[in-house]
Specification:
By secondary structure, the chain is mainly beta. It has 2 domains: 34-176, Immunoglobulin-like (Sandwich); 192-346. The protein has one helix at residues 2-24; strands spanning 34-40, 48-49, 51-57, 66-70, 76-77, 86-90, 93-94, 97-98, 106-112, 115-119, 129-135, 149-150, 156-163, 170-176, 192-196, 212-213, 228-234, 240-245, 250-251, 254-255, 260-264, 272-280, 285-286, 295-297, 304-310, 314-326, 341-346. The radius of gyration is 42 Å and the shape is rod-shaped.
């Protein structure tokens, strides 16, 4: 009798286990998505924004399964939003989208003002794949999106839910701000820079049998040489002009004739005083007659002559200045000198 009871009890236990195990064996537990994020183009309340949602799906997405994105109730998805405003990427590879799934094409629809539903086609997404969903004008794969999602009317943390028949679930928290923009101000003052690297140049002894070019030494150079440089830069919208003014080389009542306003080549044995310039950098240019290979000098003690200019704001332009002096056999002896005044005027 005792043996019969033991067997009966064991049978009851086995029967109960079978009854209990059957239903539990059919339950599929959802896996939690990982590395989940949503980058918004704006986090300001009541503002249209793009969404860039990314997460890793531990289980993957089988053929025909859905991914449902549910936004909090105070978000608003544009009524006309459709698949043309979305991109879906599987491990960085864009999927083809349409209103309904077909073959390998996914379906992408706005289910309501707060829900977007994506339905996989026939190509399964492998487990541990990174799924990326772009919504708004940042969707550019098949076409450039034109519709966006309006942020909530209240600020604070908001939870976006990821669910669907693909069995993975999870939440993504975003934060909406009263204002996400910082007004930054600055003032740029008017600016004009003007420097002369050497204010004492000269020719040394002149000869009627050879041309002489001024040098920084000062001493006569038989070949053309840079005497000094002028550097000009400005943020003036209308640029600048530079002039030179001053008498030609003078010794008491005697002078060495200035070349004048026509660009002229060196002529040994003929009285000549003149200058020319070249320009590098910026947008400044040398003004005629000082821009050609010859020399000129149209300034006087009382009259300024324009030598350079720029028509708009310009980075620094470096002007290389070269001076020529020739004398004739009858040029009066003496110690000649001259003072040239350079003036740069910005045109704001």
């Amino acid at each position: 009798m005792k043996k019969i009871n033991t067997i009966t009890s064991l049978g009851l236990v086995i029967a109960m286990f079978a009854i209990l195990a059957g239903p539990f064996a059919q339950i599929a537990y959802a896996a939690a998505i990982t590395s989940a994020s949503d980058t918004l183009s704006s986090q300001k309340v009541s503002t249209l924004a793009n969404h860039d949602i990314q997460f890793t799906s531990p289980t993957g997405v089988a053929s025909g399964q859905t991914i449902i994105i549910t936004f909090p109730s105070d978000f608003s998805i544009a009524a006309a939003m459709d698949f043309t405003d979305m991109d879906v990427l599987d491990d960085a590879v864009n999927a083809t989208l349409a209103a309904t799934p077909s073959g390998a094409t996914w379906g992408a629809v706005r289910t309501s003002a707060t829900v977007i539903t994506l339905t996989n086609g026939t190509t399964a997404v492998a487990a541990a794949s990174v799924i990326r969903i772009k919504i708004g004008t940042n969707a550019v794969n098949q076409s450039t999106g034109v519709r966006q999602i309006t942020n909530t009317t209240t600020n604070g943390s908001k939870v976006i839910a990821i669910s669907g028949t693909f069995t993975d679930t999870g939440n993504i928290t975003v934060n909406i701000l009263a204002d996400d923009q910082v007004a930054v101000t600055a003032t740029v003052d008017q600016s004009l820079t003007f420097t002369i690297n050497d204010v004492a140049v000269g020719f040394g002894s002149l000869s009627a049998s050879a041309a002489c070019f001024a040098s920084p030494t000062p001493a006569c150079s038989a070949s053309e040489i840079e005497a000094h440089t002028l550097i000009v830069g400005t943020n003036a919208s209308n640029g600048y002009t530079m002039t030179v003014q001053g008498a030609t080389l003078t010794a008491g009542a005697f002078t060495i004739t200035a070349i004048g306003g026509t660009n002229t080549a060196s002529s040994v044995g003929t009285e000549q005083f003149g200058l020319r310039m070249t320009a590098t950098g910026g947008s400044g240019t040398v003004t005629a007659p000082y821009a050609a290979a010859g020399f000129a000098y149209a300034g006087t003690a009382s009259t300024a002559s324009q030598v350079t200019s720029a028509t708009g704001a310009s980075a620094n332009t470096t002007y290389s200045v070269r001076y020529l002096a020739n004398i004739g056999s009858a040029t009066e002896a003496g110690s000649y000198s001259g003072t040239l005044t350079y003036v740069t005027t910005a045109n704001f």
